[in-house]
Design brief:
Serine Threonine Protein Phosphatase 5, Tetratricopeptide repeat; 0% strand
Length: 103
């Protein structure tokens, strides 16, 4: 909980910081608070679709909650954005996770 408090303090000073929101979402995942994590990832990606690090984690949340169609869409959008950004490693990770899901 201490880490969450520190991140929240930083967010008060910089509420739209993608990195801090992403870090907070990961902490929520550790606590099993998927709804809070999902909301943060969605906010990040709505505001900044090019923040490609969040696609994988959001898709995994959907998978864990048996929301397969949503997970597919997130992987697909993440692959599209990572390709645009020239992030081949991220593209490969997303594609691999996507293929694992659909096959």
């Amino acid at each position: 909980m201490e880490r969450i408090q520190k991140i929240k303090e930083f967010l008060q000073q910089n509420p739209d910081d993608n990195f801090l929101q992403h870090a907070l979402a990961l902490e929520y995942i550790k606590l099993g608070e998927d709804g809070s994590a999902k909301e943060l990832f969605e906010n990040i990606l709505t505001r900044d679709p090019g923040y490609i690090g969040s696609y994988y984690h959001l898709a995994k949340l959907h998978e864990r909650n048996e929301e397969v169609e949503q997970a597919k869409k997130v992987y697909e959008k993440g692959m599209e954005e990572s390709k645009k950004a020239g992030e081949n490693h991220t593209y490969s990770e997303l594609r691999s996770a996507y293929e694992e899901l659909i096959y």
